[in-house]
């Protein structure tokens, strides 16, 4: 019988070390491998840019977590994104992407790939008619981020994948915000899953990494070739830290979801707050869809302040447990001011984040302490 997710997260891709019996696969901190004779490799490894046993453990684990065939691990989420874009696109090709994807994703597609002649259109992903209308003969990729960063929009993975496939377009889903503990895009028809493993998969804000999970053998071979040829690989220690983080992914996500739900409900309706963006609130436009395609609503909340930028900035700078920092998905709570921090690169574009928005990455601390921290920072405290 196939193992269930919580068991996969702890065991997939891993066996005890046959030499020492060590329960945990070691950090193979080596760049190269001694050969039996020229070209006759002892364990299948030649040079660590091409492969490293600690990375192999992580890559097998990532594939198993997403229910996919192949996993590839990278030095960062953007390195993973860049690799899949280059594996698919050539100058003149076109990408359709959501109008509130992570700012760095837009920067990569628009500025870096754009400079080589790749075209893009940003659309509202919840408007399926608009998505279909944006697809052109040159469109090769439909890039979906759900929940999105920072506005927590929920996109219909099954419907979007179906539209993409009707036009011969590859559907890529950035599953960073949900993590595979809450959402499996491949099961809804997506072709490729992307992660910033820096976030919930690593889970402790101590490692940078990215992942691709791909079912198609040919596309996997292309991405793997680029991983080897260009070298944006995850290092042995980083791979090991990510594997360690993943072991507690399920229990962490349960607490992230529980704390975030309580905090969203506490914030919703507060006179200083114009709007709370959290898919776990029944009034969220993606609430029903999130219930269908996710097994929990996640740990990320965005808040729009009635008092504009001044109120938002003051709040972001006034908390103690919620530390003012970029990134998300760690065990500790963080607060971010997207328009000048994570999403500064999209200022002046249609992806610009309003300056009254603050984003919370809700950690797994005691929720009463977190709510006390929020209360102390809200106007009127
Ligand atoms: C949704 C999402 N995708 C991708 C990335 C990029 O990942 P990394 O920072 O690991 O390169 C981020 C980073 O914040 C993100 O939030």
Highlighted features:
381 residues, alpha/beta, Aspartate Aminotransferase, domain 2, five-stranded mixed sheet, globular
> Helix tally?
12
Return residue spans where pLDDT drops below 50 for at least 5 consecutive residues: none
Element order: H for helix, E for strand: HEEHEHEHEHEHEEEHHHEHEHEEEH
What hetero molecules are in the model? Answer: pyridoxal-5'-phosphate
β-strand percent reads 15-25%
What is the CATH C level class of the largest domain, in words?
Alpha Beta
Q: What's the CATH superfamily of the largest domain, by name?
A: Type I PLP-dependent aspartate aminotransferase-like (Major domain)
| Overall 3D shape | globular
- What is the mean pLDDT? 97
The number of domains: 2
Q: Could you please say which CATH topology of the largest domain applies here?
A: Aspartate Aminotransferase, domain 2
Major β-sheet strand ordering: 3-9-8-7-6-4-5
Structural class of the helices, strands and pairings? alpha/beta
């Amino acid at each position: 019988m196939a193992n269930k997710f919580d068991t996969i997260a702890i065991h997939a891709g891993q066996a005890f070390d046959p030499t020492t019996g060590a329960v945990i696969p070691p950090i193979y901190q080596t760049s190269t491998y001694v050969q039996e004779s020229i070209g006759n490799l002892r364990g299948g490894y030649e040079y660590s840019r091409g492969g490293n046993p600690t990375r192999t453990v992580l890559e097998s684990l990532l594939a198993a977590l997403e229910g996919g065939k192949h996993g590839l691990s990278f030095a960062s989420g953007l390195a993973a994104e860049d690799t899949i874009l280059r594996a698919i696109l050539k100058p003149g090709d076109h990408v359709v992407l959501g109008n509130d994807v992570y700012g760095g994703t837009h920067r990569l597609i628009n500025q870096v790939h754009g400079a080589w002649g790749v075209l893009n259109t940003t659309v509202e992903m919840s408007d399926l008619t608009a998505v279909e209308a944006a697809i052109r003969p040159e469109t090769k990729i439909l890039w979906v981020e759900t929940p999105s960063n920072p506005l927590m929009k929920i996109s219909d993975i099954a419907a979007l994948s179906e539209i993409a496939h009707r036009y011969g377009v590859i559907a890529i889903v950035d599953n960073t915000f949900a993590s595979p503990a809450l959402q499996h895009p491949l099961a809804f028809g997506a072709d490729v899953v992307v992660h910033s493993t820096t976030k919930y998969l690593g889970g402790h804000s101590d490692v940078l990494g990215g992942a691709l999970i791909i079912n198609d053998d040919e596309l996997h071979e292309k991405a793997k070739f680029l991983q080897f040829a260009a070298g944006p690989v995850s290092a042995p220690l980083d791979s090991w830290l990510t594997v360690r983080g993943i072991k507690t992914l399920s229990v962490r996500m349960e607490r992230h979801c529980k704390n975030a739900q309580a905090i969203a409900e506490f914030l919703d309706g507060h006179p200083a707050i114009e709007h709370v963006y959290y898919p776990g609130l029944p009034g969220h436009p993606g609430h029903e869809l999130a219930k269908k395609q996710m097994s929990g609503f996640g740990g990320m909340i965005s808040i729009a302040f009635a008092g504009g930028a001044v109120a938002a900035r003051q709040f972001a700078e006034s908390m103690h447990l919620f530390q003012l920092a970029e990134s998300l998905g760690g065990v500790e709570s963080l607060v971010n001011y997207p328009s000048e921090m994570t999403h500064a690169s999209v200022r002046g574009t249609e992806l610009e984040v309003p300056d009254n928005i603050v984003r919370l990455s809700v950690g797994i601390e005691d929720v009463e302490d977190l709510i006390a921290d929020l209360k102390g920072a809200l106007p009127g405290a």
